[in-house]
Design brief:
It is a single chain. The protein is an alpha+beta fold and 103 residues long. It has a single domain (10-88), classed as Ubiquitin-like (UB roll), CATH 3.10.20. Helices cover 17% and strands 21% of the residues. Strands 2-1-3 form a 3-stranded antiparallel beta sheet, with helices on one face. The longest helix has 12 residues, at 35-46. This is Ring-1,2-phenylacetyl-CoA epoxidase subunit PaaB.
Length: 103
């Protein structure tokens, strides 16, 4: 984690939800002293192309992420939840639509 210098503008992560998108996407970062100024900078830098549905800024220090060396605890298979895996279920047999119907 990088520390902000005393008196230096904070770093903010910028997220846009494009008009045709379902979710916000990280598009970059800006430096600003407060959330309002961060939104204005983000608007000026990242909304020139198209008209996004919404714009978010999040102070960089408030974003928490899993580091690559922590991959397994966060993204490993959930072996303790066998219902998530298809091999735990018996295949359906008989009575299905297999295309061999008499007409």
């Amino acid at each position: 984690m990088t520390r902000e210098r005393e008196g230096a503008p904070a770093s903010w992560e910028v997220f846009l939800r494009p008009r045709r998108g379902l979710a916000h996407q990280h598009v970059g970062s800006v430096r600003a002293g407060d959330p309002h100024a961060a939104l204005l900078r983000a608007r000026d830098l990242y909304t020139r192309r198209g008209e996004p549905l919404s714009l978010w800024v999040v102070r960089s220090g408030d974003v928490h992420a899993a580091a690559p060396d922590e991959h397994d605890p966060y993204f490993a298979n959930a072996e303790h939840k066998p219902y998530r895996y298809p091999h735990q279920f018996a295949p359906l047999t008989g009575g299905g639509s297999d295309g061999d119907h008499d007409h």
